[in-house]
Amino acid sequence: MTNSQNVSDMKFDLKTLPALPGVYLMKDNSGDVIYVGKAKSLDKRVRQYFQSKRNLPPRTVTLVNHIDDIEYIVTDSEIDALVLEANLIKKYRPRYNVRLKDDKRYPYVKVTVNSAFPRIFLTRRRLMDGAIYFGPYTNVKAIRTTLDLISRAYMLRQCKKRIEPGKTRPCLNYHIKRCMAPCRVGIDKEEYRRRVMEAIRFLKGDTSGILKLLEKKMRSLAEAQEYEAAAEVRDQIDSVKYLSEHQIASSGTDDRDVIAAVADEKAVYIQIFYVRHGSMVGKADLTLIGAEASESIEESMAQFVKQYYQDSPIPPEVLVQYELPEKDLIVRWLCQRSGRDVKVHVPLRGEKKKLIEMAARNAEMSRRMAKLKPARSEAAMEALGDLQKVLSLDALPLHIEGFDISNISGTNAVGSMVYFENGRPANSKYRQHNIRTVKGIDDFAMMAETVHRRYSRLLKNNEPMPDLILIDGGPGQVGAAKSSLDSLGLDIPMIGLAKRFEHIITTKKGPEEVIILPHTSPALKLLMQIRDEAHRFAVSSHRRRRSASLTHSELDPIPGVGPNRKRLLLESFGSVDKIRSASVDEISGLDGISRQLAQRILDHLGK
Q: Which of residues 506, 528, 547 is at a domain's end?
């Protein structure tokens, strides 16, 4: 692929780049950020990537060949762009950026106080989800040791499994006195909650009680000449002291959203900057269309705030460009939703005012970009119109869903569903279905299960059905998927796209069962894009599931079976069920596994 081909194939039009300082984010065809850079002039800097390959280093050539889209944020100065670039690199960790090895997001301690039986664990992401966060912590070893201490002292659960008392067997943590096991019958919910609150007080810095307890234990062990155990407790005391001295409170007072808007005769273009811990970490471009666009800009912004924060995290402070009508009512509602004080105001001076001005400039850039999108939209609508004509559909297929299956020898099978709206992928609406009912290699049955689960859920929730369903496969896969629709009483247009010759398989009978289009057809190009995206999403979902199965399995507690032997067993047999069905001779035939260990494995698996 040449650089000129990249320019023409990209979703982004280089002509729209402003000659202003800012940050640019380069994305691949999956929507992932692969590079973040800063520029004194976005126009000049980004264009440098698309000059002759002979003038570019090999790494840059590789980067350019993977660019599918570009996003940018305008800043006040090149210094602001530098700071923002660092924040975004920390957030996205792009593949092609040069990163310091120690440049990582420091962890938080998360307490899920909004669940019936809260967990306390480390996380690298801080969300506005009702949980309590402590941190971030720069000394990861100290906080891990402290969490281990909390586990010993308060016996709070660490696992993610669903709590159904009496329906699951307590795990090893319960038997080694590391968990109260709320999954068993008879657990005292109030006692569990009391221990959680004690752990929270400890994390807030009230360490006096636990330090006295540990110091007493250390002296007792030393007097009993159990010096190794006493040294371990001493290390725990050091970790607690370090934590208390370097505690960073999680009040969230430096968290805010910055909202600005511009309007034209068609829409209102909203720009939101997300500021977390005093640093800008991201942005969102949103649009209000319809009735809101005909109102005043102040009314439109008030409508946006009310709609957006219905299901979005609410920070302690929201900066807006204009005074909101019914501001007092909106503030009371935000406070009620978030459970704490929320300030909404228009900044008049200082750094907050500069943030609003920067957001307003970016909103204006979004408005200008929108005027250049009709040509791109017209091409998508042309493909959809062509597709409607070719398939003799009653309506334009504005909502298309594509399906594919991915598995290796029937293991860790995953069904994917991708969602295309107005001819463009809507990544947030993609869905993954782990195959539950099909054993072995049966792609047809797997496709039938995936389609049935998808549309039975839509029926149950009374959600809109697609205008067209695309199956990655031939007559067998299409027939299996159609049988699932028939069982649900649904009549949705469905086609398949066979990989080898790109023939369209329809569910009609007779001579129209297969449709062959020229490779230049806009309709075929759109179908191929949806099919390829469904395949990509299925493969990536399957890889994640396979990696998880190699990380956690029934083989973990078996003495003598470490990560390497576990990987060898799973790769050789394919699944734990197949290991369970194997003989001692078959298992001991693997390199590094004795007959004694093979028998131990089978005994543990209950054979």
A: 547
